[in-house]
Amino acid sequence: MNYEAALSTAIQRLHDEGRYRTFIDIERTRGQFPDAVWNRPDGGKAPVTVWCGNDYLGMGQHPVVLNAMHEALDATGAGSGGTRNISGTTVYHKALEAELADLHRKEAALLFTSAYIANDATLSTLPKLFPGLIIYSDALNHASMIEGVRRNGGQKRIFRHNDVAHLRELLEADDADAPKLIAFESIYSMDGDFGPIEAFCDLALEFNALTYIDEVHAVGMYGPRGAGVAERDGLMGRIDIINGTLAKAYGVMGGYIAASDRMCDAVRSYAPGFIFTTSLPPAIAAGAAASVRHLKTDQALRDSQQTQAKILKLRLKGLGLPIIDHGSHIVPLMVGDPKHTKMMSDMLLEQFGIYVQPINFPTVPRGTERLRFTPSPVHGPREMDRLVAALDNLWAHCALNRAEMAG
Ligand SMILES: Cc1ncc(COP(=O)(O)O)c(C=O)c1O
């Protein structure tokens, strides 16, 4: 085989479909979020405002987080030096797990290097713990859940996105005695819509199934202590396994599950993705713990993010731009074509100093390509005005429709 030619063909296919990904090289500047510097491909530098980051609350530059990281770094050095089993468990890891268990009012929490790994490792391990397990997985679940469910050697059923009736049908069709798990997200990050958590919990109760929720796009931001949508809705106690990230609203890195003592102990003992990898650096664990602790009480920051999202949505709707609005903090602007989406993103960057990454297949279905904005407390009125004016201008320039999509 001509390996180089095969690689070129694969890459060319992406170019032809307009979904070849180019990474924008930016330098974020502490204290100046969301402003950053773009290192242009021609070697120049240009100021940009980041509108597509998932550091949803600006915690990546919060003094509480940075101080904790500096202290831990000075106290313990850079890396953890080992897997959790072999010298890589420190007071920082233990403290973070305790903070997360408390956050979710669970007996325990288990730390992973990312929420991707937490999903993949946990979901692929559960069939070892519950032989014959059937996993019912929402059709729009994140790639990390899909990978975990696919690799488990167990059975899977995919229900239509957020479709409670379809899930019921699938549950009814299976052996009543088979162990079951329902896996879903609280907020789907590309549309910003919410999962019907209560209805899924009711089905789980009726069919004696476990519940698994990914709250990656909700932790820190929803609920009175930032534990997520399940907390906001008073449903946290009905979820068996909660998955979250420390890399988005918490502004650092890492992922976790929170569950019963026994569940965490079993996953800890059986999941290769937990066992055979170096643990997070202590400074990361310290920063994440400080962030989680801080956001248990900083309701003002949460409120400010919601206000920013509402303002942006109102203003874009006022211009007749086709945004999706499910009442969450995510603002998707539908373009519906990969080439147009990329072109708009390029023009925003080049002409207006606005950085928003185009979102294409396979992250979203073909024909629903979009620009996804993430307004946050660090985006001020000046940034908002510039964004709205730029979009108005570009929409006219590209002669795109202004009919509003249903939310
Ligand atoms: C729904 C969902 N789950 C899990 C992840 C993975 O999180 P992490 O970045 O911590 O790996 C992401 C995105 O990155 C996500 O969108």
Automatic annotation (TrEMBL):
Reaction catalysed by this enzyme: succinyl-CoA + glycine + H(+) = 5-aminolevulinate + CO2 + CoA
Transmembrane segments: none
EC number: 2.3.1.37
Gene3D superfamilies: Aspartate Aminotransferase, domain 1 (3.90.1150.10), Type I PLP-dependent aspartate aminotransferase-like (Major domain) (3.40.640.10)
Subunit structure: Homodimer.
Cofactor(s), names only, from the UniProt record: pyridoxal 5'-phosphate
Gene Ontology MF terms in the entry: 5-aminolevulinate synthase activity; pyridoxal phosphate binding
One GO process term, biological-process aspect: protoporphyrinogen IX biosynthetic process
Keyword Acyltransferase tagged: yes
InterPro entries: 4pyrrol_synth_NH2levulA_synth (IPR010961), Aminotrans_II_pyridoxalP_BS (IPR001917), Aminotransferase_I/II_large (IPR004839), AON_synthase_class-II (IPR050087), PyrdxlP-dep_Trfase (IPR015424), PyrdxlP-dep_Trfase_major (IPR015421), PyrdxlP-dep_Trfase_small (IPR015422)
Domain Aminotransferase class I/classII large stretches: 48-391
NCBIfam families assigned: 5aminolev_synth
Involved pathway(s): Porphyrin-containing compound metabolism; protoporphyrin-IX biosynthesis; 5-aminolevulinate from glycine: step 1/1
The entry's keywords: Acyltransferase, Heme biosynthesis, Pyridoxal phosphate, Transferase
Protein name as annotated: 5-aminolevulinate synthase
Protein family per UniProt: Belongs to the class-II pyridoxal-phosphate-dependent aminotransferase family.
Protein's organism: Loktanella fryxellensis
